[in-house]
Amino acid sequence: MFVLDAAGTVIHASDEFAAHLGADAAALRGRPLSDFVADGDWPDVRGTLDAVRRASGWENHRCRCRLSGGSGGTAARATEAEADVEIEFSPYPGGDGGGGDDGGEGDGCRAPGSDTERVVGSLCREPSEPTTARLHTERDRFDHLFDLIDDAVIEFEIVGIEPVVRAVNPGFETVFGYDAAEVRGESLNDFIVPPDADDEAVDFDQRTADGKANHAIVTRQTAWGRREFLYRGIPYSRGDGKQYGFSIYSDITSQRRAREHLQVLQRVLRHNLRNEMNVVLGMAEEIREATTDPRVDHAAVRIAQHTETLLRVSEKARTAAAVLDDQRPDEVVDATETVRAVVEPRRTRFPAATFDLDLPPSLPVSVGPKLAQALANVVENALEHTPDDVTVRIEAKRCENDATLRVSDDGDGIPEIEWAAVFGDEDITQLSHGSGLGLWVVKWVVESAGGRVDYDRRDGWSTVELTLPLADESR
């Protein structure tokens, strides 16, 4: 293996490559690759290098040429080295940017046109017996995965513009309801693509033919009707000039329908609950104003109190749904600024409470604006279910790869029935739906960002600790 800079100069060479040329690795460094390539072969080698550098994504290119040891090789070794060899050139993986037009994330391999446009070269050899045995082992492992995975997997060849089925796994037969013998050798699209999705399928097939991966939520036809799938398309080649690919379909119909049903029920419930409770609250106030009977007045007060509790629960459910429905990717936010933004308005609302903050000047974390909602729920829980003169301590610090936010209060603590359901293994039907719902929002927000929530009660202090992914400067 060897590495070339943008000018085609060798900046690193392995001992094995140097030995092939009959030279010392250190003697190769600083010399142009053209010194070691037979004169008549250099144009092909240079063209292959240019193709690698012009590629928009991660592409390998090969060429055949004759290598010699140049002035540094022995005559005997040079004779052996002048035999034809095949070299594979690849983008250098340590570059500083760049991205391919692959419908996904950039490849991060290099910055096209810059002086860091390095290329890695390696000699291609015929597989040795151990290598051949390893390839057989890898194939056996793949076949095992192919057969046992529950998702539907199809191996196909692009013929013209059609994905012709070459093999399907048992999962495909179970999920789509078609026998392997029935679809093998046929166009996959004829069996599973609904008429209104033809254009979409053609686009996917064209991307596969171009060597690009696919990833989408799609609707496909099964023997029992339409279903929704998470679709992933993976192209590959066998070196025979043809283009192949794998399609993987994960059935997500039930999950998506359940989510849709839940969203509709939540909206109807929240809307109706809020409207009806506002009517009840208004009637309770009218009763209080019209009665002189202490017992009736007491009953009206109780009605109003419980109605306001239900309205708060409805509002928390609305907030929870908004947070959970937010599908935007996580962003970097400053946890220190978020803590201050959450605490400041509550100093006015809870004048008897004491806030003790221990925060670094800045603490970037990867969780996005939803952190404010989670932290607000923790602080509200510490303020609303404790005496008026409660002390709330908030500490933030940086760890190796994480940041921790600790919110502590000297109140009575979270009731066991609530924290055991949220932080433990208790049945969730036992939680109290007032403060408990807020704690669930905290858990969902933090865990969706790859973090963790812990609760501890010790020495008269209750502490909720949020562990969040620390965002470094590159993010």
Describe this structure in words.
By secondary structure, the chain is α+β, with helices and mostly antiparallel strands. It folds into four domains: 90 residues, PAS domain (Beta-Lactamase, 2-Layer Sandwich); 122 residues, PAS domain (Beta-Lactamase, 2-Layer Sandwich); 69 residues; 138 residues, Histidine kinase-like ATPase, C-terminal domain (Heat Shock Protein 90, 2-Layer Sandwich). Helix content is 42%, strand content 24%. A hairpin with a 5-residue loop joins strand 9 and strand 10.
Task: Produce a short descriptive summary.
Residues 268-472 form the Histidine kinase domain. This protein has 475 residues and is α+β, with helices and mostly antiparallel strands. It has helices spanning 15-20, 25-28, 42-54, 75-81, 129-148, 170-176, 180-183, 188-192, 198-209, 253-290, 294-325, 335-349, 370-384, 416-423, 435-448, and strands at 2-4, 10-13, 61-66, 84-91, 119-124, 152-159, 162-168, 214-222, 225-237, 243-251, 332-334, 354-358, 364-366, 391-398, 402-409, 452-458, 461-469.
- CATH superfamily grouping of the largest domain: Histidine kinase-like ATPase, C-terminal domain
N- to C-terminal separation? 33 Å
Give the amount of beta strand, in percent: 15-25%
Task: Please give the count of helices.
Answer: 15
Average of the residue pLDDT scores: 80
CATH architecture of the largest domain: 2-Layer Sandwich
CATH class of the largest domain: Alpha Beta
CATH fold description of the largest domain = Heat Shock Protein 90
Radius of gyration: 33 Å
Q: What topology, given as strand order, has the largest sheet?
A: 2-1-5-4-3
* Number of structural units classed as domains: 4
Largest sheet: 5 strands, antiparallel
C-alpha geometry: elongated
> Count the strands?
17
Query: What percentage of residues falls in helices of 4 or more residues?
Result: 40-55%
* Class inferred from helices and paired strands: alpha+beta
Detail the poorly predicted runs: 72-81, 95-116, 430-434
